[in-house]
Amino acid sequence: MQNISSHKHFILSGFEELGELRPVLFIPFFLMFIVALLANSLLVYVVISQRSLHQPMSILIAGMACVELCLPVFFVPNMLLNLLFDWKGISLISCLVQMHFIHFFGAFQTTFLVWMALDRYFAICTPLSYHELMALQRFLKFIIPLAVRNMLLITLFVSFAGKLSFCRNVMNHCFCEHMALVELACGSTAINSLAGLMAIFFIPVFDFFVITASYTVIFSSVLRSSSSGVKALHTCITHIIVLTFSLTLALIAFLSYRVKSGLPEAIRVFFSTMYLLFPSCFNPIIYGIRTTEIRQHMLKTLTHWAH
């Protein structure tokens, strides 16, 4: 068995079950891609160009928009070419590079929500110390550990995936998702599953618990003193909406590979795609609509451009 060479080139066959209807998926995914690019670019431009928005929360929102802008670029163009022109081939190196960038930027979707939750916690629970705590030098102690954590965990499981030998080369996906590639390997993949589960536990699950703890303290503080409660709750509810959508899609996608639920392959691929692409379209619209200052500046910018 040792003489069998490992595959170094893969075929991405996501949504193959749809047959001739498969190219039709190009339209909704292309439209979502355009919305993600335009909405996030507009959000970043507005925050950078308006001095009044150079505040910690607005900068964090712009940072998340940068993540949401970069993330689709690493997999959607390739996926669109696959759907429309049947360009399904990808080399192992390209696959691993794509996988690393997808999961790396994907990890920051929840990490930015942690930083936003900390911002709200400082603003509402320690308002007198807010500007001191949110000064860059002080806030770096929250930024650096989580950024290093994301880099190390993502690099770890991608490296393990790169060391596997592959007996099959047809991947039932539209891009290189970690477990979709691992499923093609020969022999035991226990270490890969463990590394993937560690990444899930220490990134989105850990982030979820930190965010939940922050908002629990925030809500209890607001209920005790109703002074600035309405505005505080308004901002927090925006973050909770984003977190709920992002985590629901992500957990369905992750667990679909580990729980034999009889879920159709096309549905599993759909959720794996949407947990990355949908937040890129959804988040800038939500923040643009629900954050009053950003909404006003976005409308002014669009009105100015229209004239």
Automatic annotation (TrEMBL):
<dbReference type="Pfam" id="PF13853">
    <property type="entry name" value="7tm_4"/>
</dbReference>
<feature type="transmembrane region" description="Helical">
    <location>
        <begin position="235"/>
        <end position="257"/>
    </location>
</feature>
<feature type="transmembrane region" description="Helical">
    <location>
        <begin position="100"/>
        <end position="118"/>
    </location>
</feature>
<feature type="domain" description="G-protein coupled receptors family 1 profile">
    <location>
        <begin position="39"/>
        <end position="287"/>
    </location>
</feature>
<dbReference type="GO" id="GO:0004930">
    <property type="term" value="F:G protein-coupled receptor activity"/>
</dbReference>
<keyword id="KW-0552">Olfaction</keyword>
<dbReference type="InterPro" id="IPR017452">
    <property type="entry name" value="GPCR_Rhodpsn_7TM"/>
</dbReference>
<feature type="transmembrane region" description="Helical">
    <location>
        <begin position="59"/>
        <end position="80"/>
    </location>
</feature>
<keyword id="KW-1003">Cell membrane</keyword>
<keyword id="KW-0716">Sensory transduction</keyword>
<keyword id="KW-0297">G-protein coupled receptor</keyword>
<feature type="transmembrane region" description="Helical">
    <location>
        <begin position="197"/>
        <end position="223"/>
    </location>
</feature>
<keyword id="KW-0325">Glycoprotein</keyword>
<feature type="transmembrane region" description="Helical">
    <location>
        <begin position="139"/>
        <end position="161"/>
    </location>
</feature>
<keyword id="KW-0812">Transmembrane</keyword>
<dbReference type="InterPro" id="IPR000725">
    <property type="entry name" value="Olfact_rcpt"/>
</dbReference>
<feature type="transmembrane region" description="Helical">
    <location>
        <begin position="25"/>
        <end position="47"/>
    </location>
</feature>
<protein>
    <recommendedName>
        <fullName>G-protein coupled receptors family 1 profile domain-containing protein</fullName>
    </recommendedName>
</protein>
<dbReference type="InterPro" id="IPR000276">
    <property type="entry name" value="GPCR_Rhodpsn"/>
</dbReference>
<keyword id="KW-1133">Transmembrane helix</keyword>
<keyword id="KW-0472">Membrane</keyword>
<dbReference type="InterPro" id="IPR050402">
    <property type="entry name" value="OR51/52/56-like"/>
</dbReference>
<keyword id="KW-1015">Disulfide bond</keyword>
<keyword id="KW-0807">Transducer</keyword>
<dbReference type="GO" id="GO:0005886">
    <property type="term" value="C:plasma membrane"/>
</dbReference>
<dbReference type="GO" id="GO:0004984">
    <property type="term" value="F:olfactory receptor activity"/>
</dbReference>
<keyword id="KW-0675">Receptor</keyword>
<feature type="transmembrane region" description="Helical">
    <location>
        <begin position="269"/>
        <end position="289"/>
    </location>
</feature>
